[in-house]
Amino acid sequence: MASYNFSPIPSSLYQQAVTATAGGIGSGNIPDNARYAEGVVWTAAVVETRDGTTPTATKGNPWDAGDLVILRSRYEIVNFSAVEKTSTDSRIDWQFYNKAPGV
Questions:
Q1: For residues 36 and 100, is the Cβ–Cβ distance under 8 A?
Q2: N or C: which end of the chain has fewer CB within 10 A?
């Protein structure tokens, strides 16, 4: 039997505001044992990076409202940054997990 199952970390839901100024999840909002995260983009399109660089409206990975963003490692979670793609603020609702599925 597995030592622990793939399941959300309790009380680890976080809403990240995404505005015209690029920003990350913030270390105080990331659980210590988070190794995987799923985020749903709300309201408007965003552009993100996960390598520590700063995204712009035209540089990074674009996501539309309703898309699911998956971060597959602690490195990606800590280095994630997003900015609005248009002039409309958005948000990403994050759920953190202690491991990636299938690991």
A1: yes
A2: N
Distances in Å between the alpha carbon of 47 and those of 20, 44, 76?
Answer: 11, 10, 15
Neighbours of 50 (CB within 10 A): 21
* Neighbouring C-beta atoms of residue 48, cutoff 10 Å: 23
Structure tokens at 48: 């993100």
Helix (H, G, I), strand (E, B) or coil at 21: coil
At 22, list the tokens. 């690029």
pLDDT digits (tens, 9 = 90+) for 80-100: 999 999 999 999 999 999 988
Cα separation, 62 vs 79, whole angstroms? 16
Report the candidate in 97, 81, 98, 82 with the shortest Cα–Cα distance to residue 38.
Answer: 97
